[in-house]
Design goal:
The structure is a single chain. The chain is built from twelve helices and twelve strands. It has a five-stranded antiparallel beta sheet with strand order 1-2-3-5-4, covered by helices on one side. The chain has a five-stranded mixed beta sheet with strand order 6-7-8-11-12, covered by helices on one side. The termini are far apart. The structure holds iron/sulfur cluster (2 copies). One iron/sulfur cluster (SF4) binds next to α7.
């Protein structure tokens, strides 16, 4: 018997099936919302119904015991639902005003900070990092936790000039969405993966490995043995390697992680919002800081310096990148005390061509060149 289209099992389930009752009843009827205090929104429906949303920071990795505790709280105050946002925040949607402070008390007891709304530091989005990924040059969750702990005050208030988005990614694949953040902490490899011929020639499919490299840095290599036989392996042109780690995903004979050479770079001034000057990529502020786990003090110092200068000088609603554009990069480096080096000069000759591919960048780049 043929399956009806709606019975087929593909794609995510319809989110409307999971809405709390109050949201379902007022779906499409929300009239306005107010940011009533740090971490708390009120939405008002055309019917007059009010609903309150409390946002809390959440950990990257959560035990099932903690999730059960959260569910107990949601059962009590939130019509048995809660929402995990893409930035790892947890949103508690409360239909009764009198329950807002009760819920805040309970979640704080669980160690979840309330905030990350309005002109505050929002939860730090991060990739999976060392615990899971073979490509990581640094630990997204580890750095995010260390920086969050130091800047937690900015999360819990909303008196910054504008919202502050910080993101952390273990490598340039940017699963932590660092490319358009006010401050981006990006893992950096600095050396091409070494080739272990004994593994490559016995465990890996050489043609696939060569084909997978996006920069054509991998070439075939024939190893001649003393007995006259040959084995196939590869050679990597270090000048062409951009440390993406794709080869290591296919073959354990080219390990990319390097404890001595891996670290973190810091980028600033990106934003996704199209408001005012439009969306912008993050741009390089600090090319390299050596990994220093578990608390990355040098990274924390740099982030604090940048945030302090921006918070002191930016105008109302001026995001980090807009502030830098106004004061100029020279002033940014002078005020933050960050050293300007030759690494800040973009000499990648294909960048104009590549930027022209993106629809958002097209107009401005074409005008400029
Ligand atoms: S950004 Fe890099 S390190 Fe992080 S999960 Fe993605 S591939 Fe792995
Ligand atoms: S890390 Fe990426 S760029 Fe470098 S050799 Fe491997 S696949 Fe090529």
């Amino acid at each position: 018997m043929a399956l009806a289209f709606e019975d087929m099992d593909f794609g995510p389930p319809d989110y409307k099936d999971m809405l709390p009752a109050t949201l379902k009843d007022n779906y499409g009827k929300w009239k306005y919302h107010e940011h009533i205090k740090p971490g708390v929104f009120k939405h008002v429906s055309e019917s007059g119904k009010e609903v309150y949303t409390v946002r809390t920071g959440g950990p990257k990795f959560i035990s099932s015991a903690t999730i059960r505790e959260m569910c107990d709280v949601a059962d009590k105050y939130c019509e048995s639902t809660l929402r995990f946002t893409s930035k790892h925040s947890i949103e508690w949607i409360i239909p009764k005003k009198e329950d807002v402070d009760k819920l805040i008390k309970e979640v704080k007891k669980m160690g979840l900070p309330v905030g990350g709304t309005g002109n505050a530091m929002h939860s730090i989005v991060q990739c999976t990092g060392w615990v899971h990924c073979h490509t990581a040059a640094t630990d997204g969750p580890g750095i995010a936790k260390a920086v969050s702990d130091e800047l937690i005050d900015y999360f819990q208030r909303d008196d910054l000039p504008a919202r502050l988005n910080i993101a952390a990614s273990g490598c340039l694949n940017m699963c932590g969405a660092v490319h358009c953040s006010d401050i981006a902490l990006l893992g950096m490899h600095r050396v091409a993966p070494p080739v272990d011929d004994s593994i490559v020639s016995t465990q890996c499919e050489v043609p696939s490995l060569i084909a997978a490299c996006p920069t054509y840095a991998i070439k075939p290599k024939i190893i001649k043995e003393d007995d006259g036989t040959t084995r196939k392996s590869i050679a990597i042109d270090a000048d062409k390697c951009m440390y993406c780690g794709i080869c290591y995903g296919l073959c354990p004979g080219v390990p990319l992680a390097n404890a001595e050479n891996d670290g973190v770079s810091i980028w600033v001034g990106g934003k996704v919002s199209g408001a005012r000057g439009g969306a912008a990529f993050s741009r390089l502020a600090i090319p390299f800081i050596k990994n220093n786990p578990p608390r990355w003090p040098e990274v924390i110092d740099a982030v604090k310096k940048i945030v302090k200068e921006w918070a002191k000088d930016a105008r109302q609603d001026e995001r980090m990148g807009e502030w830098i554009d106004r004061i100029g990069w020279t002033a940014f480096f002078e005020r933050t005390g960050i050293e300007f080096t030759e690494k800040h000069i973009d000499d990648y000759i294909f960048s104009v061509r590549d930027m022209n591919v993106g629809s958002r960048m097209k107009g401005s780049v074409l005008k400029k060149y």
